[in-house]
Amino acid sequence: MSQHPFLPQADSLSRISREALSSADDTSFIHAAETCVLTRLKTLRIFGGLPLQKREMSEEERLSRLKALLSYWANGCPFVIDEQLFADVANRRRRA
Fold first, then answer.
1. Backbone phi and psi for residue 43, each to the nearest 5 degrees, phi listed first
2. Residue 14 pLDDT grade (very low, low, confident, very high; cuts 50, 70, 90)
3. What is the pTM of this model?
4. Which end of the chain is more exposed for a tag (fewer CB within 10 A), N or C?
């Protein structure tokens, strides 16, 4: 058993988040950030599920929340989550 079971995930998440934050334009940033969120979502156990019945976020709201979340992750806070954002990204990708 590892003393630091989340350390490899945290390093990987931090690296991926920094790469997404360095994207040149908003469209490529959103795509990279959503991919990062979905990757993180696969590693979580969310009890009670995500709030999938919420309204779809506007692009501006989604962009600002993705930037804030990835900033936390890039700066070493991998345990910060945004359930509504996760649900929005999951719904958006499910429909695509």
1. -95, -5
2. low
3. 0.72
4. N
| CB-based contact 71:21 (threshold 8 Å) | yes
Crossing angle of helices 59-74/7-21, nearest 10°? Answer: 130
| Residue pair 33/66 in contact by the 8 Å Cβ criterion | yes
Residue 55 tokens read as 């309204």
Q: Is 58 helix (H, G, I), strand (E, B) or coil?
A: coil
The residue behind tokens 């936390």 is 72
Residue type, 10: A
Max distance between CA atoms of the chain, in angstroms, equals 43
The per-residue pLDDT for range 38-54, each reduced to its tens digit, is 888 777 766 666 666 77
- The pLDDT value recorded for residue 24 is 63
Type of residue at 75: N
